[in-house]
Amino acid sequence: MSFALDPKLAADTRVIGDLSLSRALLMNDARCPWIVLVPRRAGLSEITDLDAAERAQWMEELALAAQILRALPEVEKINLGALGNIVRQLHGHVVGRRAGDFAWPGPVWGAGQALAYPPIQLELRLNWLRNGFGLT
């Protein structure tokens, strides 16, 4: 069984690139900067499905994503989550938040309708993120 991205994640995101363990994705929602990291291993649904070394690597990749988003002037707080209630494939959300954003102080999940990035803004954001991850 080989790694394949869940169809819902594929539909809702754009590919930033592949890290050591994870595929880094940008949630296609311009309301806030939002990265999703999916370990490139087949059949994972829980963090505990990763072995200890992979869990440590994934945490480092999540921390790097948080560090990258914190560099944005509009980001005051980072939210991390790995729910898996709708998409069972193991994935982690790294969301840049600010007081007064569209869902503040509640969670972003299920808050209103996503607002897709305009094409030029999407390319700029993807390039900036690829540079931050060292993928350029």
Describe the structure.
This protein has 136 residues and is an alpha+beta fold. The protein has a single domain (7-103, 115-133), classed as HIT family, subunit A (2-Layer Sandwich), CATH 3.30.428.10. It contains 3 helices and 5 strands, in the order H-E-E-E-H-E-E-H. Strands 1-2-3-5-4 form a 5-stranded antiparallel β-sheet. The radius of gyration is 14 Å and the shape is globular. The model has no long low-confidence stretch (mean pLDDT 95).
Highlighted features:
globular, alpha+beta, 3 helices, HIT family, subunit A, 136 residues, 5-stranded antiparallel sheet
Q: What would a concise description of this structure say?
A:
By secondary structure, this protein is of the alpha+beta class. The protein has three helices and five strands.
Tell me the distance between the termini: 30 Å
CATH superfamily caption: HIT-like
CATH topology: the name is HIT family, subunit A
Mind summarizing the main beta sheet? 5 strands, antiparallel
